[in-house]
Amino acid sequence: MSTLELKVYDILKSKFTEKEASDVIEYVQTKVKETVEEKMVQSQILQSKDLEILRKEIKEDFAKVDGRFSETKIEILRWMFGIFLAMMMAIVGLYFKK
Question: What are the sequence ranges of the domains in the chain?
């Protein structure tokens, strides 16, 4: 027993018998342990819900980023094609200039 338990035990022993004081201490310990376990379970449930929400948000963000990459890729291809056509026209123009 810890010092706090001993102090409580001594106080209870003055009011009750030793067995009754011991039973009260055990009851309190059991209730505290049950409460702590319940709080741990609730905490784990909340953490799992929070993780699930974060996973969903991350998936949505990746989908948005993927869409932006697709748009950017198309835009780059358009510019490359335009530059290619301009260069080809310049080369053909220089060829016919002679």
Answer: 3-97
Give the pTM: 0.47
End-to-end Cα, the chain, rounded Å: 106
pLDDT tens track for 73-98: 999 999 999 999 999 999 999 988 86
Q: Contact, 21 vs 9, CB < 8 A?
A: yes
Burial 12-49 (b: 16+ CB within 10 A, else e): bbeeeeeeebeebbeeeeeeeeeeeeeeeeeeeeeeee
- Asked if residues 7 and 28 have their Cβ atoms less than 8 Å apart, the reply is no
**Torsion (CA) 37, 41, 44, 50 in degrees, nearest 10:** -140
